[in-house]
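protien #1 (seq + structre)
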Amino acid sequence: MNLKELNPESSPQAAFGARLRSSREARGWKQDDLSARTGISSGHISGVETGRKMPSLRFAKAADVALGIAGTGDTFERQWREMQYGSLLEGFPEYLGYEGRAVEIRVFEVGIIPGLLQTPEYAQVLANSAVRRGAITPDQADERVAFLIERQAALVRARPPMVIVVMDESCICRPVGSDKVMDAQLEWLAEFASQPHTMVQVAPFRMGELRTFNRPVNLLTLSDRSVISYVESQTQGHLDRDPASVVPLLTAYHQLQAESLSQAASVAMFKQLRKGTP
């Protein structure tokens, strides 16, 4: 059989296919063997390996399980996320892998509604804006929104994680899209806050210097009670597992919660802002 030679450097898709083929062959497996282990047809596997077909997230996860690399730091899932969302900051694709397994998620956001709480319509407005700026393509915009919906769906499981969100008042005062989009977004924030495994608070402008963070912060507690942080600036993202630097962030988060509005007061603010929309 004449195998199509792939240049892994020609495209991220080719790199994915070449790595899949080499990983399979290193185990002495034929495509049929990998097919039996993943439940994916050998024809589709061949298409991915030769770069003719784009792998899906389901494909990447199945390959990780079959090849015994799920949960490691160098999975096909991580490569898929980097391939699909290369515009995301460094460290974020890896963070997402942990987020899907976390038992507690703490988020602080400035300027926009946190992704986990965005409605599809709100997210689409932001994505379309990035297209108009030339930052991403229309296809990437659609993929970004679809991925966000998938990310939110991962929180709906038999034992959902506790999701704690503190958002700066700017997140809800900044209009995004039409009045209809903002009204639906504010309504969803109140509904999200009513769930038994969530907590939503607003850090009001008047707290001034008592606001402990000036940039977005994500903190994940895993099943072994270890904590991971992910902090972003405009151009960089940093994933950290070192307790010496993560624990102070957790302390600062608790201090932020103490100074923020209660959940009841925050929901009242959402409802008050809705009165200003048709």
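ok now protien #2
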Amino acid sequence: MTPPATAPPVISGGPETVLDGAAAPSMARIDAVVHLGFAVLMVASAVRYVMRHRPAENLWVLALAAAACLIYGFIAVLKRRRRLRPGWIFVLVAPWCALVLVAPSFAWGSFALFFLCRTALAGAVAHLATGTLAVATALGLFRLSGGSDIAMLLGPLATGAMLALILDRMEHDVRVQRRLHAEVSAAQGQLAVSERRAGTIAERERVAREIHDTVTQGLASGVLLLEAASRSWPGPRARDDVIKAGALLRQNLADTRSLVHDLATPGLDGVPLPKALWQAAALHLPQVRVQETGQERPLPADVRHAVLRVVQSACANIKRHAGPAQATITLGYLPGAVTLDVYDDGVGFDLARIDPPSESGGYGIRAMRARVEQLGGAFSVESTPGEGTIVAVQLPTDGTLA
């Protein structure tokens, strides 16, 4: 008999054991093979017994065998419908033990009952049922040999013990595998939660940078222009400042609407990058100059977007903090990378005394650095009080820096 090798998909847990979706079809096939084997063995054993015994001896033995078969079939149906109670197994084991003791020809059917007990019972109860079967089978076969063949006595006992140990080990391994699977599933769930949390934080930081580089900077520049206009009102310069503030606020409104709709770069996607940089910078510094070095080529959308935002933020900072200053933007194309330098000749500042972020500002340099480093680039600022400032950026255009 080979069924022991295919029994491991079951975890003994009594009649209430629920199999995994993948294990259930396999277990159904194993049960079918075991039941078919039991039927074949019972027919063969009955034929053997009838041929070897007188008719007077056949009637009550065959009646006992038929009763055992009926109980076996009833239990098989209950087990398939998951309605089997442990007590029914012992209702089968008792007449079966009597049968193999008086008619050892039926002993081979004990293999099927052995597996039925292991799949329907768990723990000590399963060992009690299978042990009883093994002992009764051993005694029956030993009696069949006339009490002269010790192998008939020890064989079923040793076979039952080995099968029990093997099945116990298989069931233990399956339990460990299920526990590990549950732990992995729990860990994956925790990882998914962590990834969602990290994604939420990253998205908040990204939106904060976008708002800082568009809405905040634009509003700040508009406020500066309106304050300048109020100081020179009603002179002609005030009118120019109001016109510039209106244009800046209209552009800022467009930026805000675009930010609401997927945070795209407003109105600059189809413009050559040098011109787009000038348009972004001129909102804050009308006299800004843009220079190019190297062979111009299309840039990845995220790199182009980052370059534009850095220019916007840097020029807004120059407008707010550098005083009357001239600015120059230098865009350079390198193999596998693009560089950006934003220079102004303003008052400069002490890098060691950058204010922490607050409601009044302090996000500019940090937002630019975060934006660049998120794309694997390098960001640096050089400034000395009274000597101007340089914002330098290098971004990879092929995934890695050259």
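The mean pLDDT is 78.
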